[in-house]
Amino acid sequence: MARPALPRRLRAFCFAVLFLAAVPAVFAAPAADPRPNVILFIADDVSWDDLGCTGNPTARTPHIDRLAAQGRRFDAAFLTASSCSPSRSSVVTGRYPHNNGRASELHEPIAAHLPWFPRLLRESGYHTVLSGKNHMSSAPPAPGEKPQPPAFDLIDAGKGDGNSGGHANWVRLLRERPAGKPFFGWYAALDAHRAWDGDDEWKVDVYGPKHDPAKLRVPPFLRDDAATRSDLASHANEVTRFDHFVGLVVAELERQGQLANTLILVMADNGRPFPRAKTRLHDSGMKTYLIAHWPAGIAQPGRPAPGLASTIDLAPTILDVAGVAAAPSMQGVSLRPMFKDPAAIVRRAAFSEHNWHDYEAHGRSVRTEGYLYIRNHRPGLPWQGPADSVRSPSHQALRSARDAKQLTPAQADVFLAPRPTEELYLTSEDPNQLRNLAGDPAHAAAKARLAKLLADWTAATGDTAPAQLTPDLFDRETGAAAAKGKKGRTNSRGTPAGAERQADRINAPGPR
Ligand SMILES: [Ca+2]
Fold first, then answer.
1. How confident is the model at residue 126 (pLDDT cuts 50, 70, 90)?
2. In this structure, what DSSP letter does residue 281 have?
3. 324-330: which pairs have CB atoms within 8 A and are 24 or more residues apart?
4. Neighbours of ion ligand 1 (CB under 5 A)
5. Residue 87 C-alpha to ligand 1 middle, in angstroms?
């Protein structure tokens, strides 16, 4: 029996319904990329224990403290260099400083062929922004080779509105990002680097009162005097200003309904710019706070992770979160297992370096769960810190007290020369690393084990300690710039450096 045909009008209606139902699939814009946003906050010259959530009783960092309380605090996170551009360059390529071309030394560029992880994010569909301090560069490509495509869609110096701290545009750039793309922000403050512009630009109604110098904790390796306390208070003020702008970005993510789907990481590039901190392989220089906040991706939020982590792991971690394969050149491991389980162990050792930063230097270190082992390849030289620290009131207070023979051994350490070739510390019992156990027979087995770890890493990564290194560009006692026209510079790999080095830049006081 023939099926009765639908009336013509009903057929037309059915076609129209089917057509309209199909329209969204055919003509609508593609669905927004659901991958998480990532924002990496990097403060400048802040030590691991300069925050409230890492145990500093007088620090005022409520916004970062909240991220730690609701996310994951990594309690054994270490930089690969306690030096600005070497540390940042290592994060961006996921490679050890001495494997990063000439970037093992301050101000030097990364080898041209090495991929930067933000470029891989960008090529996978992320909108990538650097706002604030940059201090990273690529060397020119070899003749006949093309330069790599840019790593960032937008690079912004982060200044404006009477704010020179590098964070002035963080919220605006988050608001102005293109729709439909996940966002990656390399948000790098100039806080808390000397000079103390945070004090000059302070807004008491925004940041609250300045820190009271009389109430601050003074590390045992500094003099407890008025000049040092005032210096420390100015640093603490800039840490609080950094925290304020982190809080504004978090509030903006919340307003956009994006906080749950955003991985926020908070760290610093190197330790505070004070004696026996910045450029040190000890915790005061090389340990960093590392906070991860990601409601959609961190299990058991609020529980800290005690396992070792290196900032060389951040590139593979962020790429892992974004579903992008890490480049074969990257040397770290993803920390994502530690997002899922705070007790996870992803590495058994973390390695760090000390290369030229204003002064000739060559040192290496390895950490395991309980120990720090340091090998100094320039034991004849003092380890006074970078020139900006040497020029500081805190360092000059140590100098005066040294001349008056008033220093404790911990305070005298920045003047010590010759220094031990080997240092070994039991970090759990000696958080400031003031008791060198390298000559203690009770720890000889541990020392041998760590020395072997370091030797194996040295061989595996092709590290060297050349006889000729880049010489001092500043006076070690005063921090004053040395005479121009140094000849025969080599970098820490022993190869000629500086053909394109700009003499005016490196000789300018206060490298930034
Ligand atoms: Ca720095």
1. very high
2. S
3. 324/120, 324/121, 324/124, 326/94, 326/117, 327/94, 327/115, 327/117, 327/120, 329/93, 329/94, 329/95, 329/114, 329/115, 330/93, 330/94, 330/95, 330/117
4. 44-45, 84, 269-270
5. 8
